[in-house]
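Shipment paperwork, digital attachment
Item: protein structure file
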Amino acid sequence: MNLSHLGWDGHWTALITDFPDVFSAYQPFRILADYGQTFLISDGVQEDILNRPPRWDGVVGDWILVPPASSPTSPIRLPRRNQLGRQNSDHTQVLAANLNWIGLMTSANRDFNLSRLERMILLCQNQDIQPIIILNKIDLSADNAFIKELETWFPHRNHFVISVKTGDGLDKFEKWIAHQGTGMLLGSSGVGKSSLTNRLLGQTVQATQNTQANDRGRHETTHRHLFPLPNGSCLIDAPGIRLVPLNTDSALDPLSLWGREAGFACRFSDCSHLTEPGCGYTALFQQHPEMRKRWEKRLREQHHYLDQDPLGRQRKKAEDKILHRAIRQSQKFRKK
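Attachment content:
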């Protein structure tokens, strides 16, 4: 194994070759596991234990440059491509970094939620991470209803229908992720993340609780860990991790996702995308009526949220007032 098997590519090489005099004595390592006060790191040949330096923010998936043993300097963390974490009350706690793809995992039972998948896809794209959808436990479904819904909602999105229990569909999934860099599985407890991790590694590295009669399981992941896979890619397994958006504006607009995938766009910034002439999404809705229904549903949910949120309603009212004033002024200007 070498650095490339841990996800090292030309992006990282370019970062350090620009400063050969500075980094010539440093050795690249990747953080494989976070044990609190120590890290497990690897250079692709051997693994080592690194004591956590004071006030150091390394996380699983980070690439670091380790100085010679005689140097008092702390390891240097290379700038991250992206980062994932969970939102606490006052800050975002970063838990993993530098992913190429994320498997959004759901199952063919009560966990199946298309709206949640849609939000997760948008958040992945906001972090420049390729999202794929993994529908597990297909052996529990007597028909293809779940598959049909996926294909209807996400006609241009990679999705894999699998059963970790029976092995159905796993060959296709493993072939796709081979040499795809570093990935992660995200989903609710019980959808089979740890079971799939064990299957991909060919050994039991993450404990799982037995699935009960009601098809619910709970994973027992105890710490964050990056595993090199036999097929040349890497997988990060992490408890409690969530996708946290870098911003919450147009990057989370579902129409930007649907339109971009289908080749449509709207050039207006204040368009409802329903009745305005010249809207670029009109043709999209004509070709895909279900998307219009989904957009109308989202608008209704937004209005309901404003009804329940007095401050949000006040902000919306102030924004509308400014907009209407600008419209009146432009109309007066045209009359002159």
